[in-house]
Amino acid sequence: MKDEIRLTPELLLQGYAAGIFPMAESRDDPEVFWVDPRMRGVLPLDGFHISRSLARAMRRTDWVLRADADFAGVVDGCADRVDTWINPEIRRLYMALHDRGQARSIEVWDGGQLVGGVYGVVLKGAFFGESMFSRRPNASKMALAAAVDHLQRTGFTLFDTQFLTPHLATLGAQEITRATYHARLDHALGVHSADFTSATIGSFQDVVQRMTQTS
Q1: How far is the C-alpha of 97 from the C-alpha of 183, rounded, in Å?
Q2: Does 63 reside within a domain?
């Protein structure tokens, strides 16, 4: 359904709590519409699949993990592609949510350059993953692994990926029915102890050590 009034951060959060999320047809389309997929993508926080090659790359890298160091840069990196659903209105809304502490980014830095990242909305025990990008091989996979690790360590129970892509499936993401998703969402919205800022982001070496110990 097309949105006919100017969206606010409050309305956006109400939408997420109801199980829907906003998109635009393209970066040039000013309209924003709500999406409620029949099948929903989720990434189990205890089920991230870290391949041997990815684990090796994370152990050997000198890239640095950061959280919220350049949220706008992550959003812009995600929108920097031929086809994108991130229009100026969507960008405005997520920047406003970030200012309120309810949109967060996990970032991969190579020296002073942002080379990958993932961002999403946080609400109680739910993380609604919006998009990710990569300017180096494996950078988005590494960011996603770090996000899963961080969310698990800080009390979250749901990582919503919206849709299931072949790429996400290789990392452990699953597709569930709308009814199952709503049950998991209701549980996550009852979790009041989740706090994205309650742990430091650490290093890639820390992340891969924890993941390989528990896998």
Answers
A1: 25
A2: yes
